[in-house]
Amino acid sequence: DGGITQSPKYLFRKEGQNVTLSCEQNLNHDAMYWYRQDPGQGLRLIYYSQIVNDFQKGDIAEGYSVSREKKESFPLTVTSAQKNPTAFYLCASQKVGFSRGAEQYFGPGTRLTVT
Amino acid sequence: DAKTTQPTSMDCAEGRAANLPCNHSTISGNEYVYWYRQIHSQGPQYIIHGLKNNETNEMASLIITEDRKSSTLILPHATLRDTAVYYCIVRAGGSQGNLIFGKGTKLSVKP
Is residue A2 a contact partner of residue A104, using CB atoms and an 8 Å limit? Predict the structure, then answer.
């Protein structure tokens, strides 16, 4: 069954700790994305990657880091430098080279709470 | 990518058709109209997308006006499980960039 998995669904951390959120896809998609969603708001882009070993900053990359060592995996690290890390984090992937218009598929999300 | 405008909220009776409008008056010729929905505390779910012809799939129909400045998402027989925030997004074909989600329309399906 193809799709995107994110784990864990809920994550609690103390302030000052780094935390890594997992995102795995078996859709054979080249592009992967990390978004952040705050209550009552739309999604904001943190980082995205269109190919293995390459990634670009999105609109709110400060305090976050990513890696893309494998096509299937795009983990996000929330560092202690992120001022307000408590949020709902969503990972997505998309097939590329598809001029007709390709949809992004989303994982179930990880709700991070930092106290 | 062009900006979209949607009503903040709408109600629909269970079993009736839900018609969700979206304005995208600045849409460019190569931009597609996408619809996603997000049920509370879940990831957004892709519904449908189109360029200029009307589209239909197992979830919904998409009606795009001839001038492409607006569109309507139709859920033909709304159920309580269709209660969600619905997002209309305009995006260039072949784009690999992010989707720009606005506030969307909160659809409440009532018994």
Answer: no
A101 touches chain B (CB under 8 A): yes
Give the tokens for residue B38: 């997000």
- The rounded distance, in Å, linking the Cα atoms of B24 and B27 is 6
Q: Is the peptide bond before A8 cis (omega within 30 degrees of 0)?
A: yes
Strand partners, A4: A25
Q: Between β-strands A64-66 and A10-13, what pairing exists: parallel, antiparallel or unpaired?
A: unpaired
B82 φ/ψ angles, rounded to the nearest 5 degrees: -85, -5
Closest A-chain CA to B96: A96
- pLDDT score recorded for residue A97: 65
Taking every pair of Cα atoms in chain A, the longest distance, rounded to a whole number of angstroms, is 45
Verify whether the Cβ–Cβ distance A42 to B102 is below 8 Å. Answer: yes
At B35-83, the pLDDT tens digits run 999 998 899 999 999 999 899 999 999 999 999 999 999 999 999 999 9
CB pairs under 8 A between A and B: 57
Q: Does A10 touch chain B (CB under 8 A)?
A: no
In sequence order, the 6+-apart residues with CB closer than 8 A to the CB of A8 are A22, A110
> Quick one: DSSP state of residue B17?
P
